[in-house]
Design a protein that fits this description.
This protein is α+β, with helices and mostly antiparallel strands. It contains six helices and 28 strands. The chain is elongated, with a radius of gyration of 35 Å.
């Protein structure tokens, strides 16, 4: 084929045009790819960034404060949209060239080339985006994991997780407590029965033994180390009738009269459950330890009653629980027990009597940092929504309750005189007898020769109320403004207690770590303790969750999950089922079949943490293998 000058001119005129088009297409692909990668990098960067002076300036200004990451993300969104438009336009353009080619090879070749380059360009852009996203996610995951571990190491308290999450329900003195008197006793409460021979030396051969098993429990001045621990005969051990709560009474005063002394209590992995298996297992297999500071003072201030439920002279439904709240921690062995005739059990330090002055059979339990005693009868009178038995006091009768002061030591008032290994009345952690009339003087029991200032023959605390034939069956609910912090609230105090307020009094013995918990997610060794406060004006109870310092968002942030299950019961023994509280549809009157309330949303299924979707009943975060689920775990917040 021959070419003339005009043909060559036309050919050379078209070729530069084709190259320009290809260069433009490649430039667009390159620019969009660079934007995607840069945007991903910038979006990732803030996860590890901290606030700077620029941010402070921005906060003080009225200028827009969108981060560069957000701006780049918007650019990427526009760029990807533009890619779609360009790709579609090129495909349409290539199609037109193909249709208009009329069999001529050059236009067909050009159309195919545009189509091919468009597909390749699109694949390159999205492949670059996908590969970059994958690599950055893996790098960030690795970086975050390392950061999480470092943060956890900084915030976790070794040998602490058994409190709340493990087998320990509570202890006194509390973790890091200060100004503890030298004559204090040490209390430890487990969630289930413990083999006493693993805590009391020689118990297997002599059940009356009271010496400490120092293979299981060490009590020592922190600075002096474990080798300075109190010897077996330097601690008297007592326990409740269920072998769940143990009291360690040092024979000599702790500390010094000259300076404050820090003490450590170490519960070792030699402690056994009643079944014989290890008490500390899984993530908490090394045991549990805590410290407190002993002052130079001796406690000679007697305890007193701060409030009671029901109130004096009240008329109450017969399924009410009787409760006594004290001003300080009370000795749990002297304050709890059962009055059960058939079981030959006659605890009388606290008595509940009917109109005929006969003792009502039932059981006394201690809770709320050893400050609250709850009494429940054995007379079954119905079931609550969870299928648990409700117990009732005698119907339409005057019910009288008395908390007895203990016999005093003649020369050490208000110290109580032991009767055997315990006392004949209620005493505080320093063995001071009850000041029933709260006149700051302890007069002891009726058998004492001490003459009370007000002329009474004893220092007991007594009150009475009447019962009717009604059964109060209102389900306890969390009030609308009853959560602090609120659902998904951020930037909260790292030290303040978590608070949950109910619309009614709660039965204190159910407000414990079986029913209430707090979990970090992701998990690190973390303890929690449960307390409660009564609002007597509105007849409400506020549940408080004590915890260590939370991880601040300034150093990486964390999610924390408060969980309340249906073992929480009202003072009338009605379980929290369904869970009703603040949220989008967790309010009263919601559709049946949705008993759970998860982050304010009613659910037919048990609540779960975001990382623990495989856990069906209780949101215990990964790494926790020692937490035992309570019975009838149904309802969570």
């Amino acid at each position: 084929m021959r070419y003339n000058r005009s043909t060559l001119r036309r050919t050379h005129m078209h070729r530069p045009h084709d190259h320009s088009f290809q260069h433009a297409l490649r430039a667009i692909i390159l620019v969009i790819g660079v934007l995607c990668v840069f945007g991903l990098l910038m979006t990732a960067a803030p996860t590890l960034a901290q606030e700077t002076a620029f941010q402070q300036f921005a906060d003080a200004s009225t200028l827009p404060q969108d981060s560069i990451a957000i701006i780049i993300a918007r650019v990427i969104r526009v760029a990807l949209t533009l890619v779609g438009i360009i790709f579609t336009s090129l495909i349409i353009y290539a199609g037109f060239l193909f249709l208009l080619a009329r069999g001529e090879p050059e236009p067909i070749k050009k159309a195919k080339k545009i189509f091919q380059q468009s597909i390749i360009g699109l694949l390159i852009i999205f492949s670059a985006y996908a590969i970059t996203t994958f690599i950055l996610n893996r790098l960030l995951d690795a970086a975050y994991t390392g950061t999480s571990e470092a943060i956890a190491d900084a915030y976790a308290e070794p040998l602490s997780g058994s409190l709340g999450g493990g087998i320990l329900d509570d202890h006194y003195p509390e973790r890091d407590a200060v100004d503890i008197p030298r004559n204090t006793r040490i209390f430890v409460s487990f969630k289930e029965a413990i083999n006493p021979s693993s805590i009391v030396e020689g118990y297997e051969t002599n059940p009356d033994s009271r010496n400490l098993n120092i293979e299981s429990v060490l009590i020592y001045p922190t600075d002096e180390g474990e080798n300075s621990a109190l010897a077996p005969d330097e601690v008297v051990v007592t326990y409740d009738e269920e072998f769940e709560t143990f009291v360690f009474d040092p024979v000599e005063y702790l500390g010094s009269s000259q300076e404050d002394t820090n003490y450590t209590v170490f519960l070792t992995n030699k402690i056994q459950r009643a079944s014989g298996s290890a008490a500390f297992t899984g993530a908490y297999a090394s045991g549990y330890a805590w410290t407190f500071e002993v002052s130079t003072e001796i406690d000679l201030t007697p305890p007193y009653v701060t409030s009671v439920v029901p109130a004096a002279n009240a008329d109450e439904p017969r399924n009410v629980t009787i409760e006594i709240n004290f001003s300080e921690a009370m000795d749990p062995v002297a304050s709890t027990g059962s009055y059960l005739i058939l079981e030959d059990s006659f605890f009388t330090n606290i008595e509940v009597q009917d109109a005929a002055m006969a003792n009502v059979e039932g059981t006394f339990e201690i809770s709320n940092a050893y400050r609250t005693i709850s009494f429940t009868t054995i007379d079954a009178c119905g079931e609550d929504p969870c299928g648990d038995t409700i117990y009732c006091l005698p119907t339409n009768q005057l019910i009288s309750t008395v908390a007895k002061a203990a016999t005093l030591k003649e020369d050490e008032i208000p110290q109580a005189e032991p009767t055997g290994v315990t006392f004949d009345g209620v005493v505080d952690a320093a063995a001071n007898s009850l000041d029933g009339d709260h006149d700051e003087n302890a007069c002891g029991s009726a058998s004492d020769t001490i003459e009370c200032i007000d002329g009474d023959e004893n220092d007991n605390y007594e009150w009475s109320f009447t019962t009717n034939d009604e059964i109060e069956d209102t389900v306890p609910q969390i009030i609308t403004d009853g959560l602090e912090p609120g659902i998904r609230e951020g930037e909260i105090s790292t030290s303040a207690n978590v608070e949950v307020t109910f619309n009614t009094y709660l039965k204190s013995s159910t407000v414990d770590t079986h029913a209430v918990s707090l979990w970090p997610d992701p998990y690190y060794e973390f303890w929690f303790a449960i307390r409660k406060e009564n609002d007597d004006t509105n007849k409400r109870t506020k549940v408080l969750i004590e915890h260590p310092t939370l991880v601040s968002t300034d150093v990486g942030g964390w999610d924390y999950w408060p969980v309340l299950n249906n073992e929480i019961k009202s003072a009338y023994q009605i379980c929290m089922y369904p869970a009703i509280g603040p949220g989008a549809n967790c309010e009263e009157g919601r559709v049946a079949g949705y008993p759970y309330c998860c982050n304010g949303i009613a659910s037919a299924n048990a609540c779960q943490t975001e990382e623990q979707e495989s856990i069906e009943i209780f949101p215990v975060p990964a790494g926790v293998t020692d937490y035992e689920l309570p019975n009838n775990t149904e309802t969570e917040l």
